[in-house]
């Protein structure tokens, strides 16, 4: 088992496209690190450079104490699980799992022991004689995982392995991967564009955008203390609301003419960043927006509602822009109903208009 370190890693293609820009990342031994971000953000390219499937243009990658830039993929002691499973259709499940071990000239007895061990862990023992076309999507993904497990690598690399599964099976497989990580005590590096997967699976999350790391931290820290406007908007569903605001004398926040007394925490942040009298972007998550019962707050109109079991998302329009609040399913609000909304002042986020960085970060 090993830690993985990326130092000033860049990937530039011959056409001039700069896919990964000065990435510095320390992934600890036995950690479950999730690289998350929108399509084209550089997360898969970063994973492929760790795997050796893409050359590093600049920078250094280490597994343990060894720099692996010039080490071939087969000698990096890693195993990769792909989005499309990448199983050999003419081979049985057993032979698919054994293929890499046979290439490494592993003794037949050891191959058998490893396959039996891995298939027991994944619950696919009864599938060993079947061909991939006889398997469901979830079963194929387990076989792909089994093929990686039997190699007993230092590092598992996973590139959106659940994206081809239906919603129910994705939830089930997320739980199985978390358990697998705990049982194997191996370093996992997992790529996804799904922020729900990132939040539920990672011991830490690396949020990427435009080839750059935006923030690396525990999922709860990233959710509660986003470093910038991008992270705040990308992590969370529905996404964070953003309003134009003004700081008045370092004490009050003016949003569309409604003034909020800043919390002591935000007063200190505003002072530290010299924003006592300035424009800011105000962020507030849907669960921290409430309907006022006494007519206070911002006047808005309900645009539509979205029932999600015990939760109800209420989308409303204010000054020509759409926002959302989250409440319980018992609300009887209808389209075009007028409401007054207020914020939980302790949960307000403030961002610099120019840099888009959080004043609290």
Any descriptors?
alpha+beta, 6-stranded mixed beta sheet, elongated, 361 residues, 9 helices, 5-stranded antiparallel beta sheet, single chain
Characterise this structure.
The structure is a single chain. This protein has 361 residues and is α+β, with helices and mostly antiparallel strands. The strands form 4 sheets. A 6-stranded mixed beta sheet has the order 6-7-8-3-9-10, with helices on both faces. It has a 5-stranded antiparallel beta sheet with strand order 13-12-11-14-20. Strands 15-19-16-17-18 form a 5-stranded antiparallel beta sheet, with no helix packed on it. Strand 16 and strand 17 form a beta hairpin. The model has no long low-confidence stretch (mean pLDDT 91).
């Amino acid at each position: 088992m090993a830690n993985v370190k990326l130092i000033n890693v860049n990937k530039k293609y011959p056409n001039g496209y700069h896919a990964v820009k000065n990435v510095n990342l320390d992934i600890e031994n036995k950690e479950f690190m999730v690289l998350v971000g929108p399509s084209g953000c550089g997360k898969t390219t970063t994973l492929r450079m760790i795997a050796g499937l893409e050359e590093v243009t600049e920078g250094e990658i280490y597994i343990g104490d060894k720099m692996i830039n010039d080490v071939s993929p087969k000698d990096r002691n890693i195993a990769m699980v792909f989005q499309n499973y990448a199983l050999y259709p003419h081979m049985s499940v057993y032979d698919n799992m054994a293929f890499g071990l046979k290439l490494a000239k592993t003794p037949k007895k050891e191959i058998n022991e490893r396959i039996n061990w891995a298939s027991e862990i994944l619950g696919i023992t009864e599938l060993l004689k079947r061909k991939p076309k006889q398997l469901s999507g979830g079963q194929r993904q387990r076989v792909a995982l089994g093929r990686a497990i039997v190699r007993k690598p230092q590092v598992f690399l996973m590139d959106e392995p659940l994206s081809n599964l239906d919603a129910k099976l994705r939830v089930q497989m997320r739980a199985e991967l978390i358990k697998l990580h705990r049982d194997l005590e191996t370093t996992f590096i997992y790529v996804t564009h799904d922020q729900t997967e990132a939040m539920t699976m990672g011991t830490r999350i690396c949020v990427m955008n435009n080839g750059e790391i935006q923030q690396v931290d525990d999922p709860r820290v990233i959710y509660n203390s986003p470093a910038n406007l991008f992270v705040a908007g990308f992590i969370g569903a529905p996404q964070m609301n953003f309003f134009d605001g003004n700081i008045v004398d370092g004490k009050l926040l003016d949003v569309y003419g409604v003034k909020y007394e800043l919390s002591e925490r935000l007063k200190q942040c505003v002072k530290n960043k010299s924003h006592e009298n300035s424009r800011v972007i105000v962020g507030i998550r849907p669960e921290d927006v409430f309907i006022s019962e006494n007519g206070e707050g911002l006047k808005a109109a309900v645009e539509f509602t979205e029932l999600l079991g015990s939760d109800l998302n209420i989308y409303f329009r204010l000054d020509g822009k759409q926002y959302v609040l989250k409440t319980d399913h018992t609300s009887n609000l209808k389209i075009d109903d007028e409401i007054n909304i207020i914020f939980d002042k302790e949960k307000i986020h403030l961002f610099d208009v120019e840099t888009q960085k959080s004043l609290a970060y």
